[in-house]
Structure formats: structure tokens, C-alpha cells
Amino acid sequence: MSITLRSDSGLAAGAITEAGLGLASFTDASGNSIVVTAIADSNSDLKLISWKVPPTGNSVSRLSDSGTQAGQSSLVDMAASTQNRVITGVRSGDGNLRLIAWQIHLADGSIHRLTDSGNHIGAVSMVAMSPSPEGNGNVLVALKNSSGNLMVENWGFDGNGALARHGDVTAGAIGGVAVGPMSRGRAWTAVIDGSGDLKVIIWRVGAGGGLTRAGDSGTHAGTAKQVSGVAMGDFLITALRDGGNNLLLISWKISADGNAVTRVSDTSHQAGGADTISCCALAVNDPSRLGKVITALRAREFTLELIAWNVSASGAVQRAESFSDRPGTFDMGKIAPGAPGTFVTAIRESPDKRLKLVAWQILDGSATAVLPNNVVLYLG
């Protein structure tokens, strides 16, 4: 297997704030990846930008943006929906979370605002988003509410095309959160709890979109300072900055009903210092492996590093390869899959705070498809 940096966006985007990064990817009729970034620009206004990356990954071209269709945003995230739509979650000027739905036109990358949730969610200090496991265009929104507690909501489109909330649940105090879908109608959150420890919580998503808490990992994880994750079948791989400030991956086996969360394996000392961690996964045609997890992180030198990990059928995680020719320093980042064998990282470069997209090619003879990527938390 090899990881190759293919191209980047150069100076095609300007400075962005620390509000966060949303990243999603679609595929057009020619096999190009149409990548969408959601950021707060230098005026702190929400802006979506569309980009085209060919199947080879050898160029990153800016297509279009949302212009002045949205206002002030101090927290930003985004999840892909169906029918080439995305839904952004933004903390607006009044401190409340607002969801906004957008249509992405793959032919030219143009972006049009469709509808929004209004002020029906309330004040938040953290937000993370992902597609719902239902596969019907709904998205999961995990947030830290005004009481400092976790709230998970399931939003989608109603019969009239308006955004509607289909389910919501609450849990205890948190200091960080990531969220994502699983098979069998399950969803997961990986939170930093009130004691500073990682806790995995599994949720069941009902036929109407309602959410019910299932099991959790209890006290089997330890200290976490940042957290990300991705599901692979009945396994969840969490990628976190541990108590020693190092990257640690932990695999968890989730029962079919979600009630049992069992720690299986971890990477121990296979990686060093890291923060700004994001990850996604690649399925493989190999019965001995669940697939590969790709972590994108900021190393001790404040540079971007990609690390590929093999995940065995039993859930064991082993480091496979890393990319050492790192493209400059940065302070925010996220990774998302593109066309088969390609990935895109979106980073905020240091010190000029400019948004940059980097296209990567990852070759593995047994790779078949990309699994849904996670959403990583940005603290606000």
C-alpha cells in the first residue's frame, strides 16, 4: 500500500476563522469528486465552497461558492444528505444553533440555499454532525447544550421539503464529542465525559427517526483530550489524543442491539504526539481484514500527517504506513473520502489561516470502497 500526495488548492481560498470545518464529497457523472467545504470566512460569515478533484487526484479546482447566502457563524460543521444536498450546523450571532440545507449542483458546483431550521435548537457550545444510519437524507447532530450536556438530534426533510426534527435524546456532561452512523440502524457518539474520560455511547435509530439510548463503554477507555471515530460493520474505531498527548486508536465491538460495547484492541505506542485528529475508513476485499482506517492529524511539528492502519476481522489495529512529506503547518483539519482510492484533507494553514484542500491517492490492491467518514469536533 502507498500514500501519495497528488495536488492541492494553492491560493484558491482565503483566510478562515477557527469556527470549524465541514467537509463532504459527491461524485459526478464523469467520476470526479465534487468536494464541498463549509467554513466561516475572514468576516465570520458562513461560506460553502465547491471543488472538483478528478479520479487521479492530480488537481484541485475551485468551482463556486455560496456567496452572501448566510450570515455570522462562530461554530461550523456539515453532513452530507441525499440528492446532492448538504446540511450545515452553525452557531449564529445570537448563540443558537441553526441548521441550513443546501443544494449542490454537480455540473458546475453552484450552491443554493434551500431551507433552515429556525431557532428551534437553542444555545450550544459544541456541534458535530454526520449522516444518519437510515440512509434517507437525515443527519445526526450531536451538541453540547446550554446546560453543558450532550444532546443528539436526528433531522431531515419533511414532505414539503422543510427541515424537521425526527428525534432527540440527552445524556450527561461532556467536554468533547464525535458522532457517526453504524450498520443495523445504530449510531454512535464518542464523548469526553465530565471526568475527562472517553465514553462510547450507542443509540438505536427507529423507523420514524426516533433515538433510543442503548449501551455504553463504561470506564474502559481512560483519559481523552480530543476524539474522532469511524464505524466498520459491528466495530467502532475511535481515534483520540490520550492523556499523554499521543494518538491512540481503540477498537470496540458493538452487539447487534447496541447494548454491549466491548473494548477489543488498541494501538498502544504505535504513534506519537498528535492533535486535530480526523479519520475515515476504506473497505477491502480481504476476509482477514475489516478494512483500513486513515487518520489525518497534526504531528508534534504542527505538520499534517496521514497514517494508514489495518483493522483485522477480529478488530486488532496495526499501523501500516504513514506519509512523511508533510505539506506545511496547520491548526485545523479534516479528512473525507473522494473517488475510489482518493481522499481529500481540508486544513487551515498556519500562520496565514488560509483554507487549503490537499488531494491524496491511497493504493491498496484489495481496496473496494470507502466507508462513511466521521465528523470531528471543533471546540467553541
Describe this structure in words.
It is a single chain. This protein has 380 residues and is mainly beta. 0% of the residues lie in helices and 59% in strands. It contains no helices and 28 strands. Strands 10-11-12-13-14-15-16 form a 7-stranded antiparallel sheet, with no helix packed on it. Strands 24-23-22-21-28 form a 5-stranded antiparallel sheet, with no helix packed on it. It has a 4-stranded antiparallel sheet with strand order 1-27-26-25, with no helix packed on it. The C terminus is likely disordered.
Task: Name a few traits of the molecule.
seven-stranded antiparallel beta sheet; 0% helix; mainly beta; globular
Strand order of the largest sheet: 10-11-12-13-14-15-16
Number of domains: 1
At the fourth level of CATH, the homologous superfamily is: YVTN repeat-like/Quinoprotein amine dehydrogenase
Quaternary state, please? Answer: single chain
The whole-angstrom Rg is 19 Å
Strand content: over 45%
- Residue runs with pLDDT of under 50 for 5 or more positions: 367-380
What's the β-strand tally?
Answer: 28
Helical content (DSSP H or I, runs of 4+) = under 10%
Order of helices and strands: EEEEEEEEEEEEEEEEEEEEEEEEEEEE
Count of helix runs: 0
Q: What is the molecular shape?
A: globular
CATH-defined architecture: 7 Propeller
Q: State mean pLDDT (0 to 100 scale).
A: 93
**Sheet with the most strands, sense and barrel status:** 7 strands, antiparallel
Q: What is the CATH topology classification name?
A: Methylamine Dehydrogenase, Chain H
Kindly, what is the distance between the CA atoms of the first and last residues, rounded to a whole number of angstroms?
37 Å
In terms of structural class, how would the helical and strand content be classed? mainly beta
